[in-house]
Specification:
Keywords: Signal. This is DUF4331 domain-containing protein. Pfam families: DUF4331. The chain contains six helices and no strands. It is mainly α. The protein has a domain of about 90 residues. The longest helix is centred in the middle third of the chain and has 19 residues.
Length: about 190
């Protein structure tokens, strides 16, 4: 709900700030104004790994989680993540169950509870490609399907097939071959 409010606010501000004018005859030059970075700023949201925060942080803890610095998230939220994972996924129903990475519920949620996007500086950058795991995120990575597989797919991705894929296998438009790489909107 909070995200929807921010989105609507951003659209409203954009419409007000970037409206068109038919006054093309006014050629006044205005000195550019530098941005003002003075003041107090506060972190309001974070999402290093899409959907993880949304799924594993209980509603009553969302605000606290979003302002907790990542180096403190694991200790503060791992047990909540584990409880929620075990409650959601039958793939972790038995003692010793692991996912395709060989991680049991406690170890897997230890990784997830620190909500950062790790990036390999000298290897393949991908969310998961069968070999490399959480070494970054390539634009074409199907992040949600990978997360569903790791949460519901069990040891070899065969458990709970109805829960292990978002079934969105391609974009509606191809990525561009040069910056900014994202295709234009419809």
């Amino acid at each position: 709900m909070k995200t929807l409010k921010y989105t609507l606010l951003a659209v409203g501000v954009s419409l007000l700030a970037f409206n068109c004018s038919s006054d093309d005859d006014n050629n006044m030059i205005i000195d550019p104004v530098e941005p003002d970075f003075t003041g107090t700023y506060m972190q309001a949201d974070q999402m290093g790994r899409p959907a993880i925060n949304t799924v594993f942080v209980s509603s009553a803890s969302k605000d606290d989680f979003n302002v907790t610095i990542p180096s403190e998230q694991g200790a503060a939220y791992q047990s909540m993540f584990q409880t929620n994972l075990e409650g959601l996924s039958p793939a972790y129903a038995m003692e010793g169950d692991t996912n395709a990475l060989g991680l049991d519920a406690e170890t897997f949620t230890s990784v997830l509870a620190t909500d950062v996007l790790t990036v390999s500086l000298d290897g393949t950058t991908t969310f998961y490609d069968g070999t490399n795991v959480l070494t970054g995120r390539a634009l074409a990575d199907d992040v949600i399907t990978v997360e569903l597989l790791l949460i519901f797919g069990g040891e070899d991705f065969t458990e709970n097939p109805g829960l292990s894929n978002d079934n969105v296998d391609a974009n509606d438009k191809a990525f561009l071959t040069s910056f900014p790489y994202l295709a234009s909107a419809w």
